[in-house]
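Milestone M4 deliverable, item 7.
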Amino acid sequence: QNSPASEPVEVSSDLPSGLQDGFVLSKLVQSRKPISGLVVSIGVSGPNQDPRSIPDSVHQLIRSLMGPDDFGCQSGEGEFLLIYPRELGAGAQRKLAIIAERLWDFQLRSMSSLSILFSWGGVEVNGTSISDAISSATERMHETARNRKPAGVSNSAQAEIVSDASQRVAV
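Output delivered:
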C-alpha cells in the first residue's frame, strides 16, 4: 500500500555534513538521488559587494546556521545552499523562521559597516531530486530579491520589505 503524501518518504540522502565546496554539490546533483528535508537558498548582496568576495563574517554566519547533520555549500557567486535532511513539517517551518530571523539580525547589525542584504527561500521536499529541490529553493530566494523596492528606498523601509518578503516564503 502506498503511503500518504504527508508521511516522510524514507530516502537515503547520503549527504555529507558540514560546509562543503562546490565540487561536492556538483557530484550530488549528478547523482540525481532523491532527498527529503528543508532546502534553503540564501543570496548575499550589497551596494559595492563583489559576489566573489563574501566577508568571513557571512561565512561564519552560514556555518552557525547548520547543525551536525546538515549540508551546506556556496552554490554560486553570492549564493549559499543549506540542506536540513531531518527537518520536515512543522520543524521545517520553525527552522526556516529561525534562519530568517538570524539573517535579518545579521543584516541589521551590519548595516553601517558591510551593508549586506540577504534574500532567502526555502522549500520542504520529500523524495525529490536534489536538482529540483535546489531549483525550487533558488527560485523562492530570487522571488524575495525581486520583491524589494528599487534603489533609493530608505534602509528602514528596505528592511521592512525584506522582512515582508521572508514572511511570504512559505515552506
